[in-house]
Amino acid sequence: MKKILIVEDEQIFAQDLKMIMESEGYSVESIVDSGTEAIKKIEQNKPDIILMDIKIHGKIDGIDLTKEIQKKNNIPIIYLTAYTEKSTVDRAMETNPVAYMVKPIFDNDLIDVVKKALK
């Protein structure tokens, strides 16, 4: 069973993501809301894919967290965010994500992107 880590500061949205992913047969190992927690979870139990918000708790945002993760791991990342500013999108795209999805996100679109990333 493929493992997913959700990095999201909005708990209701995170729980919705968990429900969607588990209904598709994925295992959501953890939901965290900060970079520090995400790094700990990755070290404890490396996920197969990460669903990453850009605005998270702590000193770094999701893009900088992705850069930190990529120094030691090759884990596919899908950004799920409300940010549409060109500067933010450009920064995110420098990390070569699987996708940059703007909220609100349709369940089927997310499921399709996750399935393709995990093939």
How is this structure best described in words?
The protein has 119 residues and is an alpha/beta fold. The protein has one domain (3-117): Response regulator (Rossmann fold). The protein is 45% helix and 20% strand. The chain is built from five helices and five strands, in the order βαβαβαβαβα. The protein has helices spanning 11-23, 35-44, 62-72, 86-93, 107-117; strands at 3-7, 27-32, 49-52, 77-81, 99-102. The protein has a five-stranded parallel β-sheet, sandwiched between helices. β1, α1 and β2 (27-32) form a beta-alpha-beta unit. It is globular and about 35 Å long.
Short description:
The chain has helices spanning 11-23, 35-44, 62-72, 86-93, 107-117; strands at 3-7, 27-32, 49-52, 77-81, 99-102. The chain has 119 residues and is α/β, with parallel strands linked by helices. It has a single domain, classed as Rossmann fold (3-Layer(aba) Sandwich).
